[in-house]
C-alpha cells in the first residue's frame, strides 16, 4: 500500500460501508434486489479487505477528452468522456499473482459536473468470482485533476452494478481499454 493510513481504521470504515450497503439492498424500496427476493437476502459477498489493493495512481489528464461510447447491458450505447488515465503498480507478496504497472481510464459524463470519476473495469475474476459484466469504482477528487497528480484507487470499494440483480437496470459495460490482465481479488464478489 503506497500511502500511509491506519489500516485498522480503514478496515473498520470499509466494513461499516459494506454493512450500510447490505441494509440498503435488504430493505430500501430502491434496492436492485427484486422485492420478492429481499426476505431471503443475507448480504452481499465480498473479498476480505486487503490494503494491497489500495494503491496510489499517477494521473494523466486529457485536456481535450475523447468521447468513449460504452455498450450497455440493454444493448444501447452511453457517451462518456475519457477524463484521465490512472497508472498504478500492484506489488503483491503472493508469487501466484501478477505484479506490474497497469492503467485504467476514468470517465465522466459529457455534461459539466462535479461527479466522481467513473471507473468501470474487468479483471481476471470477471465472470468467475465477480459479475460477468465487470465492476465499477467511483473515485472522487477534491479538485480537477492535472497530469502528475496522484489519486488513491481502492479496489476494495469495487462494486457490482445494479443490472446484475435486476434486468430493469441498464448498465454500461467496461470498454476494452479497462480490461485488466490481472487478478484483483478485492471489493464485491458475485457468483
Automatic annotation (TrEMBL):
Among Gene3D superfamilies, the record links this protein to: 6.10.250.1680
Superkingdom as given in the UniProt entry: Archaea
From the UniProt entry, list the residue stretches annotated as the region Disordered: 18-46
Enumerate the InterPro entries for this protein: DUF1684
The organism encoding this protein is Natronococcus occultus SP4
Protein name as annotated: DUF1684 domain-containing protein
Compositional bias per record (Acidic residues), positions renumbered to this chain: 37-46
Amino acid at each position: 500500500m503506497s500511502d500511509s493510513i491506519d489500516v485498522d481504521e480503514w478496515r473498520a470504515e470499509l466494513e461499516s460501508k459494506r454493512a450500510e450497503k447490505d441494509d440498503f439492498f435488504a430493505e430500501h424500496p430502491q434496492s436492485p434486489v427484486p422485492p420478492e427476493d429481499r426476505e431471503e437476502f443475507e448480504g452481499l459477498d465480498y473479498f476480505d479487505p486487503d490494503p494491497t489493493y489500495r494503491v496510489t495512481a499517477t494521473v494523466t489528464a486529457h485536456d481535450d477528452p475523447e468521447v468513449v461510447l460504452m455498450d450497455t447491458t440493454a444493448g444501447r450505447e452511453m457517451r462518456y468522456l475519457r477524463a484521465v488515465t490512472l497508472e498504478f503498480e500492484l506489488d503483491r507478496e503472493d508469487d501466484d499473482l501478477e505484479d506490474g504497472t497497469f492503467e485504467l481510464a476514468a470517465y465522466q459524463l459529457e455534461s459539466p459536473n462535479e461527479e466522481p470519476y467513473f471507473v468501470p473495469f474487468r479483471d481476471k475474476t470477471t465472470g468467475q468470482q465477480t459479475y460477468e459484466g465487470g465492476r465499477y469504482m467511483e473515485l472522487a477528487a477534491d479538485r480537477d485533476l492535472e497530469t502528475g497528480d496522484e489519486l488513491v484507487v481502492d479496489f476494495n470499494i469495487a462494486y457490482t452494478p445494479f443490472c446484475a440483480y435486476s434486468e430493469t437496470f441498464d448498465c454500461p459495460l467496461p470498454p476494452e481499454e479497462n480490461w485488466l490482465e490481472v487478478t484483483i481479488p478485492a471489493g464485491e464478489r458475485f457468483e
